[in-house]
Amino acid sequence: MNDTDGTNEISNVFDSLRPRLHGIAYRMLGSTEEAEDVVQDAWLRRRQATNGAIDNEEAWLVSTVTHLAIDRLRSAKVEREHYIGMWLPEPVMSDNSPSPEQMLEKAEYISIAFLTVLERLSPESRAAFLMREVFGASYGDIAHILGKTEAASRQLVHRAKLQILEKRKRFRVAPEEHIRLLKEFSEAAQRGDFAALRSLLSDDAEFIGDGGGKVPSFDAPLKGRDRIAQLYFATSRRYGDKVRMRIAPINGEWGFLRFIDGVLESVQSVETDGAGITRIQAQRNPEKLAALASLLKF
What we know:
Order of helices and strands: HHHHHHHHHHEEHEEEEH
Strand content: 15-25%
Mean pLDDT: 88
Strand order of the largest sheet: 2-1-6-5-4-3
Helix content: 55-70%
Distance between the termini: 51 Å
Number of helices: 12
């Protein structure tokens, strides 16, 4: 095999693994741009490596992406300590129309709620948990990637599970019921119906917004159905028929894209217990909406 054939083979392997590698990096970092940077960095490092020195391309690439993501996350955690307001992950939207079963499967480990809870973990704990629970890696592989013993890797995953279960409450709601609530809420929001908005929110509902210091947002969760209903009512009164809300698959769950005067203003992830909306997480930071906005046409 000549050098060109070898390079092409490596490139083909990399292209086939790109979705998996990007999935690891995105779940680690909560940013599509940073995830893509990590994947590209791994590719450059692979090209610079000696072809014959790597026995298992997939293992090498997964290990490299994981290490690069851990390094980035350590830096990001320092930066996020000085982040203005509340931090939420960058949202992603499905390119097609997933089935209800696919939506439930995706939501389990990619929802905004899940990625937000992951922020509580240390970079190594996050990596260990994702490798084991999302990507099915053996404890031996995790130990090799993180440079730890299998026993230590098991402990990392176990502790991560406990932390996630402690903070994460998840209700299994039929997609049809979820969509029904979203439709009713979006219609009420667009016509400025305060009573209807209030009736669709649970008593202890909360609204979390990420403006990143770029647009107005809250420094703490907005709690209570009345305050949240008032927030949507005020937006309707201010912008009138310039407000449009589109239901869309956001990070594996049905949520809202809100447009104001034809411009994507926010991406809203919605959680429900089946009876009402329990939490809305709204990404309003223009920098985190840019990639998604470039793909959308209202």
